[in-house]
Design brief:
Length: about 325
């Protein structure tokens, strides 16, 4: 993955002026109960409590694994746990404890528009924006969020989706910064066109309101889920979002989505897809917009359209999975497909 790097304006002293080494160990070391008392390692599989956190002669708190002979300070422990470097460890801790890194964080103020960003600033000339993204490892909160839609983390890895430690937008010499929080996570999709040419990134804020959920520097040519498709198949489902693509993939279906429901499938895109799959079916939201653009696909490309039944009180397949679970969701899909 290609990421642009930014300077991390954090020092250990910035964090330790707000919290202690004990706080860091207590937060990230799940089996740690008391200083000087042995416990089970959560960095490796073991049935023997042969790890301990203790004070050194210089009054520094450290973690020691008697089995491996390793001694780690709090930063090294976070690095080991998350498989990250030192600066990343500082940012993980600062984000989890809501400690400012010296960058002014503001609420998202972005509207998505094709391959550029338009900020809500009146009478300003349009200027190309630049994204800075720092990825991080998955955590239990990410697992909890995606698993409710039947999406395992390894499927997200395959589709080139990942959590972002931070996302910065640079436009008109201004920096707009968003950092991952467990109450407001950030996820990023790498996007490709029908020929697997990389287009850019789509950033997803799942807990923001409707107009603030998305930022992207990709384009309307994006075919979300294209990386997950086999070379040949019997059925391809054209759906309305990457989340629905991933839910369907987990249920054994091949699926893609366009940049949005209102994006039209181009002739060369349709020809490539119908060459690979015997049938294409659309499964858009069962609301007015979804039905309108499903009818467009039927009229132009003769793509049969179906919908999640309205009596389920769910608009799409990912919401249906969340509400009724895997088995009932499979039953509904078998009926409508």
């Amino acid at each position: 993955m290609n990421f642009e790097s930014v300077e991390i304006r954090l020092k250990p002293s910035d964090i330790l002026s707000k919290i202690s080494e004990y706080d860091i160990f207590k937060y990230y070391c799940s089996n740690f109960e008391s200083i000087g008392v042995s416990f089970l390692s959560d960095l490796r599989k073991t049935d023997t409590p042969n790890c301990r956190i203790f004070f050194t002669h210089s009054n520094e708190l450290k973690y020691h694994d008697f089995k491996l002979g390793e001694t780690l300070n709090c930063w090294q422990y976070v690095m080991e746990k998350f498989g990250c470097n030192f600066n990343e460890a500082l940012n993980i801790v600062s984000n989890d404890f809501c400690i400012s890194s010296g960058i002014s964080y503001i609420e998202p103020r972005v509207i998505v528009s094709n391959d550029e960003f338009k900020l809500k600033i009146s009478n300003k000339p349009r200027d190309k924006s630049r994204l800075e993204i720092k990825s991080q490892g998955w955590n239990i909160k990410d697992f909890d969020f995606w698993s409710q839609f039947g999406i395992p983390l390894n499927t997200l890895d395959l589709s080139e989706a990942y959590p972002a430690n931070y996302v910065n937008i640079i436009k008109n010499n201004q920096r707009y910064c968003y950092s991952y929080k467990k109450t407001n996570p950030i996820y990023v999709y790498n996007e490709y066109d029908i020929n697997l040419n990389f287009l850019g990134y789509r950033v997803y804020f799942p807990f923001e309101d409707k107009n603030r959920k998305w930022i992207n520097n990709s384009s309307s040519k994006a075919i979300q889920g294209i990386k997950l498709l086999p070379e040949k198949g019997e059925l391809l489902i054209l759906t309305k979002s990457m989340k629905d693509v991933l839910t369907l993939y987990g249920l054994g279906y091949n699926a893609v989505s366009l940049a949005s429901e209102t994006t039209s499938l181009m002739e060369y895109e349709y020809n490539k897809l119908i060459h690979r799959f015997d049938n294409i079916v659309s499964l858009y939201d069962n609301d007015e917009t979804g039905k309108k653009y499903s009818q467009n696909n039927l009229d132009i490309w003769n793509i049969f359209c179906t919908f999640i039944p309205e009596n389920t009180q769910c608009k799409d397949v990912s919401d249906l999975y969340k509400k009724v679970g895997k088995e009932e969701c499979e039953k509904v899909l078998k009926k409508i497909l």
